[in-house]
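Step 1: inspect the first sequence and its tokens.
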Amino acid sequence: MIGPDEQTDHAQVKALQDEVDQLRQALVSHALVDQAIGVVITVGGLRREQGWEALKHMSQHTNVKLREVARCLVEWPARRTLPEVIRRALPAAVEHARARTGADAREAGQEIPCGRPG
């Protein structure tokens, strides 16, 4: 027969195992999102904060979870295709990120780059 102390210990071990599993999943998701930001930065010629803004915008305006948008973007080079909803959302998300970052900089009184050096 399992005593109350053993039940408590078992419950605590189970809770800790669940927490470790959640943390592992969070690490995987974080790495995936970072890679997707890199894809968006490369495609759109954006800065890191703009890449994050574009990724969030795509998720919000396609009703696709951020992790799923990120997965599709990371797999895009190997698969050579994007789901239609993400493919259509990408240009608008890039433009949104550029405009939003520019508006934020103006509000903060910062200089805004006028274009790429060339």
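Step 2: inspect the second sequence and its tokens, then contrast the two.
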Amino acid sequence: MKGIFPIEKFRELQTPFYYYDTKVLRDTLACINKESQRYPNFHVHYAVKANANPKVLTIIRESGMGADCVSGGEVRAAIKSGFPADKVVFAGVGKSDWEINLALDYGIFCFNVESVPELEVINELAAAKGKVAHVAFRINPNVGAHTHANITTGLAENKFGISMQDMDHVIDLALELKNVKFIGLHFHIGSQILDMSDFVALCNRINELQERLYARRIIVEHINVGGGLGIDYSHPNRQPIPDFRHYFETYAEHLKLRPSQTLHFELGRAVVGQCGSLITRALYVKQGTNKKFAILDAGMTDLIRPALYQAFHKIENITSDEAVEAYDVVGPICESSDVFGKAIDLNQVKRGDLLALRSAGAYGEIMLLATIAANCPKDILRMN
């Protein structure tokens, strides 16, 4: 639907670039607040790893959400964007000392801890500062999810979390340490989940673990179920906002919370996925032996999901009303995986046309920045 884009403005800009529809973002946030606030003990944190664009973060912070971070840089970005420290949680399987110290200095709400060695390091660093760090334990529930294998996180074979068998031992250890306070359990089974039965399975597993703890007279203050709710990549115009009502209802109906417990969510893709598009220009149209190629100035370095996950993004020629033709839509990078889609039906493409890769608000721009950071000397990053 070409009318949703300010095309004349786009023509003046150098491509490729990310475009964020702030109305879609604000409408999504309003829906999340409306549906989650039906349950007073529900609290939503935005998963900053999905998109850390400062303007996007500011709009999300204005909605009242907390922030879920997986790096020191994300913690800093959240605080800089105005998220209150007591609404910031810090997850991630590989927290470095400087990141832990940064979070301790800010006085964040909670560390989601993924191993005994990490717990011991947090206790040691907190002791050096004369502080007590609040911790929740990420438990690997061995629950599968109907999603791509690379974005499942809740199976025993995944690197994430503490096994169910070790849960009691880790809790006992935390209760002995003087500079950590055990306040909750954390779970996350994967991303881009559209089948609510996956979340029902997680609820059932949490209920089992809660009963196990209750037998020991342990009732944790907070349960954190992560995020994982997917978006409709095929129909971004028809369904710009995910079904948050059904999502929150699933947990309300199937998770047996104690009266004093709060339930925390860490939604990322579902918040920002549909508001973003990668705008790119056609450099050439090449007739191959058996197919046509639309060669764009954006490549896998700008949006890596199709190359990494074979992910689908709806592609539209937003400057053409000509008859539809089939194209392999590719980037300029010397790599055979630099392909956005094969046999894609587009209005006839010519040199200079603008194309939109839709539903790119999550794990698009942020993955580009992560690639730059990974390949840039750290002294240069500090200078900039």
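Step 3: confirm your contrast with the notes below.
The first helix runs from residue 7 to 11. The chain has two domains: 38-267, 275-369.
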